[in-house]
Specification:
Keywords: Membrane, Transmembrane, Transmembrane helix. This protein is mainly alpha-helical and 161 residues long. The chain is built from three helices and four strands; from the N terminus they run H-H-H-E-E-E-E. The strands form two sheets. The protein has a two-stranded antiparallel sheet. A two-stranded antiparallel sheet has the order 3-4. 19% of the residues are buried.
């Protein structure tokens, strides 16, 4: 019976092999980083689309309720809300016993905006009287847009969504 030598029992990886493995792992990590950034950007864009849909649906519901006489027009003859907070705070129901009609539970934030801003400050608002080419705030809220200067993955500036 032959005894094994102690020198052969302690074999392992050489320094060169470890460096090659580390280099391959570094290359793979460098390739995955842009993909993860792209994934984060795509998710923020989805959040922006959802928020825009929610707010625009609430504005349309407010307008329809005003046209149907459910809520009073007040001084605004257009029937659009005076500000975004009116969608959350609610409006007195003029038809059903004076209750309150709510259009949003809470105002969504623009995911591309500064986190220090309030949710209402994160949106650029357009009044009914302002043209689409030059949106400007006014007496009511006809539409909302992102204040971000970034361009979406589709090549369209986020403020034009």
């Amino acid at each position: 019976m032959k005894l094994r030598s102690l020198a052969g029992a302690g074999r392992g990886y050489t320094l060169v092999e470890l460096l090659v493995v580390m280099a391959v792992l570094g290359i793979l990590a460098a390739m995955l980083l842009p993909l993860s950034e792209l994934s984060v950007q795509r998710e923020r864009e989805r959040e922006l689309k959802r928020a825009l849909w929610q707010i625009r649906d609430a504005i349309d519901a407010y307008h329809q309720a005003a046209l149907n006489g459910v809520i009073p027009l007040g001084g605004l003859l257009t029937g659009y809300p005076p500000n975004l907070q009116a969608l959350v705070a609610g409006v007195k129901d003029s038809k059903n016993g004076g209750g309150v009609v709510y259009f949003l539970r809470q105002l969504p934030r623009d995911p591309f905006a500064d986190p220090a801003l309030t949710a209402e400050q994160t949106w650029a608002v357009r009044s009914y009287k302002s043209p689409p080419e030059q949106p400007a705030p006014g007496d009511d809220v006809f539409d909302v847009a992102s204040r971000s200067t970034l361009v979406g993955l589709n090549g369209v500036p986020l403020k034009n969504w």
